[in-house]
Amino acid sequence: MSAPPSAPASAAALPADSLLELRELTRRFARARDWEQFHTPKNLAMALSVEVAELAEHFQWLATGADAELDAPAREGIRQELADVLLYLVQLADQCQVDLRQAALEKIALNGEKYPAEVVRGDARKSDRY
C-alpha cells in the first residue's frame, strides 16, 4: 500500500475495520521488536504461503470442509490462521506499496468482465473454457 502523506498519530484515528489501521498496527508491532529488517517482500510472501498452508491443514482429509465437519478447536484454529494470513498479506502489500483495498476492488471489476454472470452462472470452469 502506498504510505499516506503523514501517518496518523494513533490507530484510533482510523475506522475500526480499516486495512489502513491493520497496516499501522503491524508497522508498530514490527518496529517495537526491530523486525522491519526481516520484513522483505520475499520473506513476507514466504511467511504468507506458510500460513495459507497451515489454514489448509485444518480442512485436510475432510469430505468438504463444511461447518458441520468442524469442531470448536478446528474453528478457532481456522480463525487464527485466517488472521495470520490477513496480517501477512497486509504487510506484504505495505512493502510492495499496493493499496490492497483498491487492488481488490479493481480485481472484482476485472473478474466481472472475465466472468459475466449471464454466461457463467452455475459453471465453475476457468474463463478460457467458455
UniProtKB/TrEMBL annotation:
GO biological processes: dCTP catabolic process; DNA protection
CDD domains named in the record: NTP-PPase_RS21-C6_like
GO CC field: cytosol
GO molecular function, one term: dCTP diphosphatase activity
Pfam families on file: MazG-like
Gene3D superfamilies, per the entry: MazG-like
Record protein name field: NTP pyrophosphatase, house-cleaning of non-canonical NTPs
